[in-house]
């Protein structure tokens, strides 16, 4: 009898092995990349240059997705945890009636889905279906990649064993494991417990590069008398060091062109020029020749910046003394030329309308200009968000109606920022963190709520770590721990 049972068990294992072999033929890593091209085109961060928040979400989600796909291709890898991802998906036809309601005015929509598949084909199909993208090319790719028709038919009919099989053999039921994983929500303590070792290992490996980065940043800032050196995107430490080395070589080769950078901020980003905030932008994909041209043009940029400030003052005078500001964290990354054109267009419209604002009646209030909105609104921090296409009469009514609320929000903003800074310092000290910071898309209110709840916990895992408050759980390539601001206990 037992001999018969061993034979049955061996036969079952052989069938499972055959199933795995056939599934591995279904889609290779290269096939998966080709199949996901429509998805990458719809979510690639480079297409979200005007929307920094959405760009950052897509960048981080793509990193986690790539890690998931890499694990699927590792031989013998079996520890698959459901992975929740959020992407902002661009729409090629935003006027389509069946999707119009789910899209923002900017032409993209947020899509969230959870991956829990164990093979490349199912993962690819899940991603495309979740984003409402066509899967026809995947079906044809799957047919072409099958060496035999019999293999295709077998893959489409996976083996489903009776529950008694798992009870007898001691194997784990994959469906039951999946159901349990979906029922159990990730908690902060469980996630830290599972990921601490990986984060510590990556952090230790990055420490020499972190010291090198700090050294390079201090030396260049001192040599060029810069106000600061920043990065627009969350590049890794090695990438940042490479960028500073490139700037250092340019300083040695052409020191004369860097005489006009004193007191300025250099930002490494995707495009070269001067930003609307007056920072020198160095495109990371550009060569020294392009950077050299930017430094040579600085005197002209400074002249344009003076004209821009004058234009802001004129708009302020027409709107009762309200201050026109540009907030890097909340607005798209614009060049100085683009922002000047935006201001100029808005100024000409205001000048022609001759709105009857009393001089200095709105002093102390702030506003930002936006090109992708159609109706004015008031931000929780107290500044008005004004579309460049806004009707002047509607603008006047809105500002008058919301002026008092705006003053109260501005006062609350100052109090909130003080509280946020105090909580960050207290949390850093309590948990002996090396650094505590947040992503730009996390508001002060969210950061305050997160820190208050953290301070109620005992978290020995965090000693000496770099902690980033974000919208999801992740371990970055240099060992930084990312946790959602609304983490569960």
Describe this structure in words.
This protein has 489 residues and is α/β, with parallel strands linked by helices. The protein is built from 16 helices and 14 strands. The chain has helices spanning 2-26, 29-35, 37-43, 52-73, 120-130, 136-145, 149-155, 163-169, 174-183, 188-224, 237-253, 288-296, 298-318, 336-353, 392-430, 444-454; strands at 83-90, 108-115, 228-231, 265-269, 273-274, 280-283, 323-324, 366-370, 377-378, 384-387, 435-438, 466-470, 474-475, 481-484. It has a four-stranded mixed sheet with strand order 3-4-6-5, covered by helices on one side. A four-stranded mixed sheet has the order 7-8-10-9. Helix 1 packs across helix 7, helix 10 (188-224) runs parallel beside helix 11 (237-253) and helix 15 packs parallel to helix 16. The chain starts with a helix and ends in a 5-residue tail after the last strand.
